[in-house]
Structure formats: C-alpha cells, structure tokens
Specification:
mainly beta; 5-stranded mixed sheet; 4 helices; 164 residues
C-alpha cells in the first residue's frame, strides 16, 4: 500500500516570500526544477560521499564541508524518477533550510545546474497532480517554453519527513 503525503499548504506568507525572488534552476531527469537562490549555500562538483549504515536509500552518505558533516540526498532516488547516473555535469547543491526548519544544511544531487531565473512579475501556479514530488513543490513557474517546478527547501530538508 502506498502512503499518501499531503502537500504543504501554500500560505499568503510563503507566496509573499517568493514574490520577486530569484531561483537557481536545475535539470533532473530532463525536467526543470528550481530552488530559491537564497537557500543555496554552494554548488559542488559530484564526489562520492561516505556512506552511512541503515540510511534511507535516497541518502547517499555524508561529506565533510569545511568541518561540517553534510548529508547528501539524491533527488532522482527520492522522487523515484529516471535512471540514476552520475555524469560530468552532475553537481551537488548545498542547501540551507530556513530558520523555521532549524537552519539545517543538506546536499542534493542534480543532473546539471541550468540558470538563475528571475521570477519578475510572473505569478506562481499552484502545483497540480499526485506524485512523490508534489509534497515538496511550492508552485510552478513558466520559464520560456518550459514549466519549472519550484521546490520548497524547508519541506525537502525536513529530517522527520525524510524517514516517513
């Protein structure tokens, strides 16, 4: 039986927080995703992390980032999309959750970084559909001829939610 996860409720506060924001876009299984650029601490080349026993399959392990131990999550495995393959364009985005989520840091493995996208006057479209990705999507944004799924970094890095 598949457990359904409710999508986080979009609040006026979170919409205001994203209004006029810039987003770092990235490719994941030939789909366009983005995160608020203010949550991005660093972009690192792919390096195999040190594995940790009994971690969920999508937690590849940890890396040492200037003395801090940072867990690394593979979004393809987490979202159950595409074949996991590490190429020269594969990077790790080191993200920091907001104050409400405890300022925790985690790396996410993505296929390639695309561009910095200015939201401008565009408005977010509420996420639609039902998949393992939807609980982490704060909205959709038109970018040229593509639709970018904006990920909620706080929900994505929620440690308690990772193991359920």
């Amino acid at each position: 039986m598949t457990e359904q996860i409710a999508a986080p409720q979009e609040t006026a506060e979170s919409k205001d927080r994203l209004k006029g924001s810039d987003f770092l876009s990235f490719d994941l299984a030939h789909e366009l995703y983005g995160v608020d650029i203010k949550a991005v601490e660093e972009i690192r080349v792919w390096e195999s992390p040190t594995t940790i026993p009994r971690a969920p399959t999508f937690i590849l392990g940890v890396i040492n980032l200037r003395g801090m131990i940072v867990p690394i999550m593979d979004l393809r495995v987490r979202f159950n999309i595409g074949v996991v393959e590490y190429l020269p364009t594969t990077v790790v985005l080191i993200l920091r959750a907001g104050e409400a989520a405890g300022n925790r840091m985690m790396g996410i493995v993505v296929d390639a970084v695309s561009d910095v996208i200015d939201m401008g006057d565009n408005s977010l479209i509420p996420p639609i559909g039902d998949s393992q990705v939807m609980p982490f999507v704060s909205g959709l944004l038109n970018v040229d001829a593509q639709v970018m799924s904006l990920l909620d970094v706080d929900a994505l890095l929620d440690i308690e939610g990772l193991v359920h």
